[in-house]
Amino acid sequence: MTYISAPLPNLSLLWGRDARENTPLHERFSAVFEKIRKQALQAELNRELPFEQIRLLKESGFTALRVPVAHGGLGASLEDLFSLITALAKADSNVAQALRAHFGFVEHLLFEPDGPYRTKWLDRLGAGQTAGAAAAEGPASKRDLFSTTLSQRDGHWVINGSKFFTTGSLYADWLTVTGTTEDGQTVKTLAARNDPGLEIVDDWDGVGQRLTASGTAHFRDVHTEDADLRYGNTAFPYSQAFFQLYHLATVAGIARSAATDVADAVRRRKRTFSHGNADLPAEDPQILEVVGHVFSGAYIAGAAVERAARAIQAVADSPASEIELAVARAELEVWQVQDRILPLVLEATTALFDALSGGATLRVVGLDRHWRNVRTLGNHNPRVYRTRVVGDYAVNGTLPPAQWRVGVA
């Protein structure tokens, strides 16, 4: 594609008014996000794993966003978190998703009773350490039983087995591991990333989110502390809504990135067609309509995530006597957002190609990554089941079901 130079408009006016984008928190991380954005396309094309980007976020205090100030963190709200995840995902959605399990672990700790376990881990995360995921197992795993085992050997606990979808673990200091004890109990614990028995294989082969290291982890007598074991369902009350809205905030960021890319491409493009409507694509009303359509999708995605984040914040702020209803309300809101955002952004990240030419499909341009990344995120927690839950509540008043599991029945 051949381009011309033109000044860049203030595209933030098109995202709508989010008061959090003018806060000191956004200002604090804007330079880090911009540095990550500038590396994103080349990282994608050359398969450069984002170790450096994660290091920058640790050093800036971003990974300690929700950690209380007393433990070295920033004490940010959930609404601030989701707003900043959208901004980070606009820069590079791989980096944003790589921290999903980490921020979920922080929420788990915030709902833990005061004690040595909570203090130890909040202090570590406040100092910049991070956690990655190691819960989901491979296609043959059972739905109601983890094949990864925790057992006692020579007076201490060890982990054995393999995990899949270990998102972010390659870049983390710790892995949050879910397994089964010898007597059949579900247990969650933590393992050190540098344990000699822990092998993380970067074999994630998805069409999108290719740099999240969402592949396999093998545990061979990996040590864990007895004091770190948590038995049964230890999920924090709004965990389902939180983890799904995290994906949707990432999708909203991808939508903004795609919209920015297509506007930039049209603005700088010089070539046009004889049967077009102007001598420059930037002056062609049909092309401008396509760009406007992509931006509209990005606006709606961001606005919906912002609204749903308020519902999750309300759960965290609720007294114990009201938390069950607040959780149901938050889940129903998030499931509705999920139902509409995914097809909307998938359509927008396809339509953007209509504003350009065949050169837009070149791999070096990287525009295809937006659709691939959204499609990948949308498959992690199938929206069809969540949409049914919304309909069931609307017709029958049935509250959303409890924690779900995946595997062979």
From TrEMBL:
Coiled coil: none annotated. It is found in: Cytoplasm. Residues 34-125 form the Acyl-CoA dehydrogenase/oxidase N-terminal domain. GO terms for biological process: L-leucine catabolic process. It is an enzyme of class 1 (oxidoreductase). It catalyses: dibenzothiophene + 2 FMNH2 + 2 O2 = dibenzothiophene 5,5-dioxide + 2 FMN + 2 H2O + 2 H(+); dibenzothiophene + FMNH2 + O2 = dibenzothiophene 5-oxide + FMN + H2O + H(+); dibenzothiophene 5-oxide + FMNH2 + O2 = dibenzothiophene 5,5-dioxide + FMN + H2O + H(+). GO terms for molecular function: 3-methylbutanoyl-CoA dehydrogenase activity; flavin adenine dinucleotide binding; monooxygenase activity. The keyword Iron does not apply. GO terms for cellular component: cytoplasm. Residues 247-380 form the Acyl-CoA dehydrogenase C-terminal domain. Keywords: Flavoprotein, FMN, Monooxygenase, Nucleotide-binding, Oxidoreductase. It comes from the Bacteria. Pathway: Sulfur metabolism; dibenzothiophene degradation. It holds the Pfam family Acyl-CoA_dh_M. The keyword Phosphoprotein does not apply. Its EC number is 1.14.14.21. Residues 146-222 form the Acyl-CoA oxidase/dehydrogenase middle domain. Belongs to the DszC flavin monooxygenase family. PANTHER family: ACYL-COA DEHYDROGENASE, ISOVALERYL-COA DEHYDROGENASE, MITOCHONDRIAL-RELATED. This is Dibenzothiophene monooxygenase.
